[in-house]
Specification:
141 residues; seven-stranded antiparallel β-sheet
Length: 141
């Protein structure tokens, strides 16, 4: 599978965000329906995704909205393996916002930052217990 940066570029492209099937097709990520409710169909990767740059995506999470005409919400979470720090993110994606600390710090609470890449807002999560390494990427549309 490609690098984290290539995966982010694919998922940030407008054609990649039409629906869960399109996301799976363009990214090469296998997605399985995990659950659904009246408003959202939840898809997840069946296992970790090992990328070429040593980053491991624990779960690729796609939430497809049934009734609203909006793109799916995509999260790459539980990032492990090679530590991706803010300097690397800025080299590949651009300037990163200052950190927003969690309101109730605990080891797995997320410190959040944002970056805009190709017109797409990305929310970046860093665990309180490991604040120098990227833990999640959410595509905010």
């Amino acid at each position: 599978m490609q690098t984290l940066w290539a995966l982010i570029e694919i998922l940030a492209a407008p054609a990649g965000g039409q629906d869960a099937a399109a996301i799976a097709r363009v990214s090469g990520i296998e997605l399985r329906q995990a659950s659904e409710n009246a408003y959202v169909v939840f898809y997840e990767s069946p296992g970790p995704l090992k990328l070429q740059d040593g980053v491991v995506v624990g779960v690729a999470d796609v939430r497809e909205f049934k009734t609203q005409n909006k793109p799916p919400f995509v999260v790459l979470r539980e990032l492990q393996g090679t530590c991706v720090d803010v300097a690397a993110i800025e080299r590949h994606l651009g300037p990163v916002s200052p950190p927003t600390p969690p309101s109730n710090p605990f080891p797995d609470a997320l410190i959040t930052r944002e970056v805009t890449f190709k017109g797409q807002r990305l929310a970046l999560g860093f665990k309180w217990s490991k604040p120098d390494c990227l833990s999640s990427v959410s595509f905010k549309g």
